[in-house]
Every structure is written in structure tokens, then in C-alpha cells.
Specification:
Blueprint: E1 9-14, E2 16-23, H1 29-36, H2 38-44, E3 48-50, E4 56-59, E5 65-68, H3 75-102, E6 106-112, E7 125-132, H4 137-155, E8 159-163, E9 166-170, E10 180-183, E11 191-194, E12 206-211, H5 220-238, H6 251-259, E13 267-269, E14 275-277, H7 278-296, H8 304-319, H9 331-346, H10 353-362, H11 371-377, H12 387-393, H13 401-414, E15 419-421, E16 425-428, E17 436-437, H14 447-459
Parallel strand pairs: 10-11
Antiparallel strand pairs: 1-5, 1-7, 2-6, 3-4, 4-5, 7-12, 8-9, 11-12, 13-14, 15-16, 16-17
Helix pairs in contact: 3-5, 3-12, 4-5, 4-6, 4-7, 5-7, 5-8, 7-8, 9-10, 13-14
The structure holds adenosine-5'-triphosphate and magnesium ion.
Adenosine-5'-triphosphate (ATP) binds near residues 11 and 56.
Length: about 475
Amino acid sequence: MSAVDRRIIGIETEFGVNATFREGPRLAPEEVARYLFRKVVAWGRSSNVFLSNGSRLYLDVGSHPEYATAECVDLLDVLAHDKAGELIVQDLADDAEQRLAEEGMDATIYVLKNNVDSRGNSYGSHENYLIRRDGRLERVTDTLVPFLVTRQLVSGAGRLHVVGERATYLVSQRADHMWEGLSSATTRSRPIINTRDEPHADPERYRRLHVIVGDSTMSQTTTLLRIGTTDLVLRMLEAGTIVPDLALANPVQAIRDVSRDPTGRRPLARQRGGTITALDMQRELLELASRYAAGAGIADTAPYDQVLELWDRTLHAIDTDNLALVDTEVEWVMKKSLLDSYADRHGLAPHDERLQQLDLAWHDVHPRRGLVPILQRAGRARTLVDDARVARAMHEPPQTRARLRGDFVRAAQEHRRDFTCDWVHLKLNDAASRTVVCKDPFVSVDARVEELIASIRAGSAPHTERPGSVG
Ligand SMILES: Nc1ncnc2c1ncn2[C@@H]1O[C@H](COP(=O)(O)OP(=O)(O)OP(=O)(O)O)[C@@H](O)[C@H]1O
Ligand SMILES: [Mg+2]
């Protein structure tokens, strides 16, 4: 396959961290996050490290650890590496609990993969898609923005939003926190797509599209829909498919409206006049994407066959008011059905505190305590990658540039060599070494990196006692 047929994808996730203290002093969330990173700092001498599976793990200011998956080309690899990130951060929490206990603090730390904390702060899950540089960016974004505004119908994580005694079930966690359509800044103004031009690849050929708008997703099938539908829409746009003008008059208003309308039928004002519903918009894009996929010969190829089937079934479920058709696969529907049945069983008002607790527990990444792993074991949350594949992804990089980085990091760690790296560069911190620049994210074999690793191995015997499971 040529590079055009493949696409590099990575997901960055910011986690929420909560702690409850039973005994001893209490710590602020920022301090808890710092405890979480003690193990990382001990391992990599920094709170911003690259791991041997090719990922990046870091703590900026504040209390939200971030895990950015390695560059993947296989959609199921993205799922495995995204899940691996949950377990790696959970490991840090387990370790931090132990350290706190040793210091006389009896605490439970919760790692939450959601997008809004109890104070209303929002944190993100950013998707990165490698796209071709040629052609005008607007040709992609003109369609991509309305697609993303309505994509929540198939990929929203759902949120019980309570103000006083008023409870609203929202389709999306993130929708209320988007303030612009396009922008080159992420935090100041929160755009749907960030156009900052930092491709981590040959800038003559590629761009890295930074999608800020998505919810963090726990359900594997929902993550597949999130990245799979977007990949298909990008593919058809890159192939030059003529798409009718779908632009919305006010994307930022529309995204909130769609989030408040689980029926998908509320009319959204179009830029060219008239209205369209979220369901119709998604239906139109699905039809175009299906036709494109059939023409490109990928409609029956895994996992695109699954993406198209589930995309279609989800829209049909919403259209026919039969959400049970996707209640083990689409996250906002899964969560809604759990909350509804719990409220029914216990006769709870929609704003009941216990329902809000359930909503939080949904996002708990703990493999035994979290609701999604529990539903998985009960056969009520469909999975696509098994535990063994996720466990492998905690240590093994995907077969992309990430493999070069991962192998380098592992060798340097084993031989206790000081090193620096980022997505593109690898360097040993000594005067003699030159920086190896890995510009092509598809390339997983490189003689220069092999030489670099051989020079590490020749320099000293390996240091085998490696700390825990980070790295
Ligand atoms: N050429 C590429 N194309 C698409 N995705 C890429 C490419 N190179 C790296 N990525 C992915 O982009 C993500 C970068 O994560 P990182 O957190 O460093 O993002 P950033 O936007 O560069 O920086 P920050 O979050 O600090 O603003 C990773 O998930 C990585 O796998
Ligand atoms: Mg990031």
C-alpha cells in the first residue's frame, strides 16, 4: 500500500484525578497528580517522558496527567494503545496510593477518563490524523466541521448534567466547552479543529490534523466509531469526492443543540439558508462514505466494514427510537440505559446524587472497579481488542516510527544512558552523539537507529532491574 492508503493516527487523553482521604492529611488535586508522577520522575527524571511502547506520558501544570498514544496506522492498534494508556495511568495511581499509605495517608485515587470535573473544568481527548498537504485545507475543514458537530450522535460519551434539581442527559461531555470552529490555539479559545501547523512529519507533504472536539471514550466500539468515521470522511475528501455544502450557520451553537437532543431531529440552521437535522447530516455523510468505500474497495475490509455497519445501525436506532439496537456499543446510549434502569429500579429522581456518582464511576479506568470493565465481563459492553492485546500494547510499540522510538527508549533505559527524544528526534545526551531525525512516521526500520541502539549495547552491560510497568 502506498502512504496515501494509510494514515497515522494517535489519541491524546487528559485524565481527571480524584482522591478520597480516610485518614491523615488531605492533598489538593495538584499534589495528588504530583504523587502519581513520582514513579515517572524516578524512571525518566522528568514528568514528561516517552515510554518503550512509543507513547508520551506527561504532567503539565495542573492536575491532569496526559497520555498520548504512539503513532498507529491500524485502527484497532489505536484502540489497544488507548486502553493501554488507561492501564498505565492506573498503575501510577496504584503506586501513588501505596506511597501515600507509607506516609500515613489512607487514600483511594480515582483515575477518570472523562472530560468535565465537578467544578465544571473541561479537559480533552485530542485526535491526531495525518493528512496530505496538497489541496486547500478548507476543502477538508468545510465538511469536517459540520461532520464533527454531529458526530457525537455516534461517538458521544454521554453526561448527566445537573443544575440544582434540573437534570439533563447530554449526548456529549465536551460539546458545552467548545467555543470556536477553527483556531490555532487549544486552551485559550477551544476550537473544534486546531489548525496549528506542527506535522511531526515532512511538512512539504503532510499536515497533522488536530481534532479537539471529541469526548474521551471508554467503550472500544465507540472509539472505533469515533476514529473510523472520521478516517473515512477524510479519505473520501482526500480522494476528491464532491460533497454538498453542509456548512452550519453557527457550529458552536449547533454542537450544544445536538448534545441536548438525543433524537437527532432538532433543526440546525445552515449557512446557505434552511435547516438540516443532525440525523440527516450524518445519514448524508454515511451514504457518501459508503459509496466512496465501495469504490475504493475497502467497504468489505475490516475494520471499515464494522465502522460502516455500526454507523448505519446507530443512525437507524436513533431514527426509529430503538436505542436498544446499540446499547452495548455506543457509549452515550450504553450509559443512558444503565442510568435509566438504575433510576427505575431504585425509584430515583433524575438529579439524584447516586446517578451522578454512577456517571463518574462510568469513567473510572480501574479494571475491577470501573463500570465499563464490569459491563464488559457481563457481556454488556462489546470489545474489539482483547486483554492480551491491550497488555502487549503497554510495552510494545506499533509498527510505525513509534517502533524506532520505543526500541531506542528501551535500550537507553536498560543501559542507563541519558537520552532525549520527541516524536521526531532521538538523541543520546553525550557530546559524541548526533541527533537522529525520524521524519517519516510510517517508517519502522531505520539503519541509523539500529546503529544507535547497537552503540548503546556495545557501551555497557544491560541494567535489568527495570522499574515496574512504566516503560
Ligand atoms: N505525523 C503525525 N501524524 C499524526 N499524528 C501524529 C504524528 N506524529 C505524532 N502523532 C500523534 O500526535 C500526538 C501528539 O501528542 P502530543 O501530546 O505531543 O501533542 P501536541 O499537540 O504535539 O502537543 P501538546 O499536547 O503538548 O500541545 C500523539 O498521539 C502522536 O501519536
Ligand atoms: Mg498533548
